[in-house]
Amino acid sequence: MLLRHSPDIKASEITPQRHWLNRRQFLGTGMAAVLPDFTHGAFGADEKPTPKDAVTTYNNFYELGTDKADPAQNARIFPAVKPWTVEVGGECAKGGRFDLDDLIRPHRLEERIYRMRCVEAWSMVIPWVGIPAAEVLKRFEPTSRAKFVEFTSIHDPEHLPEQRRRTLSWPYTEGLRIDEAMHPLTLLATGLYGEELPVQNGAPIRLVVPWKYGFKGAKSIVRIRFVEAMPSNSWNLLQPREYGFYANVNPAVDHPRWSQSRERRIGEFLRRPTLPFNGYADQVAHLYDGMDLRENF
Asked: How many CA atoms lie within 13 A of 223 on its CB side?
């Protein structure tokens, strides 16, 4: 096998993208270490993944429509995802504008099966492919003033007609406390089911924070900023009583219009109890020691 390394060679040119995003094919090369097994244990949901067809056709992505089927049906109108750049700035020493391929090239892709819980009381189990967010964020050397990380999604009203309406505050923004963003569970996803990330799921790069409700997962990220003050986020701006900044999955805190104590796993008929922190309490509960999670919802 011929291996080449050069700063002038893009990752997608070294190995065909359809191969390095396909776990089964990668395993066949004898390079299984590139995609460690996170399907069990602390980093995995020890559950059967939701069928891929459901994961890619039942989505919240308001830029592509407000009904669950709209994003997949309207994916064709989305702007081209290649080339794609991400601007990094704020309280960091090494910001700038980066081609996505160069941004992710130094890092290995990992496959992690995570429970994902939506605020509307439905859930999925999704095999994501991505990079631990900390591995990317620490490259920019955030300063001591960086207390939060703000993520901004694409803003292109010309091609995304929903952004011409006042459905949400556009562009879509979300934020995490910096220790949440740097937590080992937090992922910058570039694929799912061993394949390239579909448009309707947030291509080409999105945030995955499995112990929080799904709206925290900013899709199609174009800007990352390290900031000192808690950033605003689109759903909180729209309905602050319904969507808090932290958005930790908490069965004891109901949405004003429905209970969060039980959830319906897509593909199942019966509802199941909602788990605190979506089942990841052992890994993340310490981040909120001393906080009133009813107030800081």
From this structure: 14
- Here the tokens at position 217 are 């997962």
CATH of the domain at 34: 3.90.420.10
The alpha-helical segments, DSSP class H, found in 75-221 are: 100-104, 133-137, 178-181
Which residue's structure tokens are 């949901």? Answer: 45
Tokens 């906080």 label which residue?
Answer: 291
Spell out the residues 6+ positions from residue 286 whose beta carbon is closer than 8 angstroms to its own.
none
Block residue for tokens 């069928």? 51
DSSP 239: -
Does residue 267 fall inside a structural domain? Answer: yes
Residue 11 has pLDDT above 60, yes or no: no
Q: Give the Cα separation of 49 and 60 in Å (integer).
A: 19
Q: Can you give the pTM of this predicted structure?
A: 0.87
* Rounded CA separation 129/109 (Å): 6
